[in-house]
Specification:
Blueprint: H1 4-23, E1 29-30, H2 31-38, H3 42-54, E2 58-62, E3 68-73, H4 75-96
Antiparallel strand pairs: 1-3, 2-3
Helix pairs in contact: 1-3
């Protein structure tokens, strides 16, 4: 059984990959291409996609073997990824700022 940290990492990887596809104007990703890009076994990719679907973050067309045929971010998934991107940019900006010097009284 896959550990919790691995399952979370798999979900994040799926979201990042799909968000990257959206940025390249590819709203839908082929399931086998996603599996190859992420190097995930069928069962791990299917589990990640099922979880993210239940959360309303992605939409999946399933094959008869219960593996993803096509996968895409939902509107909520895009909003979540945009929020995360903004947070990361803010953190990077804060790290790049020189520390404020307190005046001596």
């Amino acid at each position: 059984m896959t550990k919790l940290r691995e399952r979370k990492n798999n979900r994040k990887a799926v979201l990042r990959s799909l968000y990257g596809a959206v940025e390249r104007n590819r709203p839908e990703v082929n399931g086998s291409a996603l599996r190859a890009e992420l190097a995930l076994p069928d069962e791990d990719l299917s589990a990640a996609c099922a979880y993210l679907t239940d959360e309303g973050l992605i939409s999946v067309d399933w094959t008869s073997h219960h593996t993803p045929a096509t996968v895409s971010l939902t509107h909520e998934g895009i909003r979540l990824m945009e929020e995360l991107e903004e947070e990361e940019e803010e953190e990077q900006e804060e790290q790049g700022k020189p520390e404020e010097v307190q005046p001596d009284d």
